[in-house]
Amino acid sequence: MKTKILLLFVISMFFPKFVLAQGNTDATYHVYSMVTADSHLYLATDAEVIDYNFTEGKCCLTSLPDGESGLSPKSMVCGNGDVYVGFSDGHIYMLKDNGLKYLYSMPETSLNQLCLDSNGTLYACGRSLYKRTDTGWSQYILPDSEISSTHAIYSMCADKAGCIWLGARLVSGGAYKYKNEQIELLNDKTGAIMAVASDNAGNVWMGSAAKGLFEFKKDVQTNNYTNVNSSLKDKTITAMCVDETGTLWLGRNYLQQYADGDFVSYPMPDGLSITCMTHCDGMLYLGTNAGLYTFVNGEIKPVNLGTSDVSLSSLPKPGQSGVYNLQGVRLDASSANTANRLYIKDGKVLLRR
Q1: What confidence score (pLDDT) does residue 292 get?
Q2: Model confidence at 76, in pLDDT bands (50, 70, 90)?
Q3: Is the pLDDT at 228 greater than 90, yes or no?
Q4: Would you state the pLDDT for residue 172?
Q5: pLDDT tops 80 at residue 125
Q6: Which residue from 12, 168, 269, 316 could staple onto 336, CB 3.0 to 4.6 Å apart?
Q7: C-beta separation of 316 from 336 below 8 A
Q8: Are 142 and 153 in contact (CB under 8 A)?
Q9: DSSP string over 154-215
C-alpha cells in the first residue's frame, strides 16, 4: 500500500492537473462556459477548467493561476485546436501543456465573453468591443454608450461572413452588429440580451432576459417569439446553440428546441438552470448551475465525469473556513491549493502537483 501511494505521489509531481480517481459524484459546480475540440469538452467552472474526454469517458482538472484566485473563468473559445480562457478581470489565457498560459490583458478590467471570427481573430467584450491585432487591442464603442454609460456587451457570436453580432445587457439592452470596423445598432428595444447564436443559414438569434427570442435575417429583425405569441415556454433565455443539423436549442429553466416557428420544451430538473450549451458528435451538452448534463432520447441526464467521491465543490478553496483531515494531515483551505503532496479523502486519492 505504501509503495502504491509513493508511486502516485511521484506521478503527481509531473502533472500540473488534478487527477481524480474513477467513481460517482454529486456534481454541484457551476459551469460558466464550454467549448469542444476534437474529442474533448472543456468546461470553465468555479475554480477549475475541466478537460473531459467524452470518447474515453475520462476527465482531469486544471487549477486556476494564482493571480486569478477567487475569480471564475468567464468565457472560453476554441479555434484551430487552441482553447482560450477569459477571466472576469480581463486577463486571457491559453490552455497549453496541461496548464494555463497567460496571453493578454483586455484594456478594461471587465470581461464578459470571448469570440473568434471566421479568420481566427480574437475578440473580447465588456463595456466595449475589443479586437486583438498584431500591435495590441482595437476598441469599438457602442453607438449610444456615451449617453447610456451603463451599457455593456454581454454576449456575442460571429457569423459565416465574419461579422460579430453583439447583445447588450444593461439598461434597455440592444442588438448590435460589428462590420467593417463599425458597430451598428439594429434594435434598442430588445431588453437585456443574454445569449447570441448564428445558424447554418446565416440567421442570427438573440435570447433576452425578459422579452423572449429575437430572429434577424440580413440585419433585419423578422420575429420576436415570446411565451404569449408562440409556444415558447420561458421568455428568459440564458443559453443557445445550433447543432450540426442546423437545429436551434435554447433555454434556462427549460431546454427548448426550435423548428419552423414552434418550440418543444423539456423541463430541467428541480433547481437547475442552463448557463451554457454546446453540441458535438451528435450529443447536446448542457452546462448548468450544478454541473454538466446531456440531452439523450428526450431526457436530461447528469454526466458522470469519472471523478471520485471528492467532488469539485468539496475541494477546499482559498478564503474558505474549515480544516480538512486528509490522510491524517490537518489541512486548511489556503494550503490545499498550494501544497505539493498527495492527499487521500475517504479512501479516494487526490493527486496534485
Answers
A1: 92
A2: very high
A3: yes
A4: 72
A5: yes
A6: 316
A7: yes
A8: yes
A9: EEEEE-TTS-EEEEE-STTBEEEEEETTEEEEEES-SB-EEEEEE-TTS-EEEEESSS-EEE
Closest by alpha carbon to 33, among 230, 237, 199, 274?
274
Query: Exposed, middle or buried: residue 167 (CB in 10 Å: 0-12, 13-18, 19+)?
Result: buried
What is the rounded CA–CA span in Å between residue 99 and residue 85? 11
> Is there a contact between 291 and 29 (Cβ–Cβ < 8 Å)?
yes
Spatial contact of 257 and 248, defined as CB atoms under 8 Å apart:
yes
Report whether 128 contacts 112 (CB < 8 A).
Answer: no
- pLDDT for residue 239: 97
Q: What is the mean pLDDT of the chain?
A: 79
Q: Where are the alpha helices (DSSP H) in the chain?
A: 2-12, 333-336
Q: How far apart are CA 113 and CA 239, in angstroms?
A: 13
Please say whether the beta carbons of 59 and 48 come within 8 A: no
SS (H, E, C) 130-167: EEEECCEEEEECCCCCCCCCCCCEEEEEECCCCCEEEE
Q: Going along 303-342, which residue ranges are E strands?
A: 323-326, 329-332
Task: Give the three cell numbers for residue 60.
Answer: 482531469
| pLDDT at 170 exceeding the cut of 50 | yes
Position 22 scores a pLDDT of: 31
- The Cα 62–Cα 337 span in angstroms is 12
Q: What is the pLDDT of residues 287-320, one digit of tens each?
A: 999 899 999 889 999 987 754 333 343 444 443 4
341: cell is 503532496
Q: What is the CA radius of gyration of the chain?
A: 21
Look up residue 188 and give its amino acid.
D
**The residue to which cell 464578459 is assigned:** 112
Identity of residue 289: N
Per-residue confidence at 270, pLDDT binned at 50, 70, 90? confident
Round to whole Å and give the CA distance between 278 and 66: 29
Mean pLDDT on 174-199? 93
Q: Are 142 and 136 in contact (CB under 8 A)?
A: no
Which residues, including other chains, have CB under 8 Å from residue 133's CB and lie 6 or more apart? Answer: none
Determine the residue type at 322: G
**287 and 31 in contact (C-beta within 8 Å)?**
yes
Please tell me the distance from the alpha carbon of residue 91 to that of residue 212, in angstroms, as a whole number: 32
**What is d(CA 62, CA 84) in angstroms, rounded to the nearest whole number?**
13
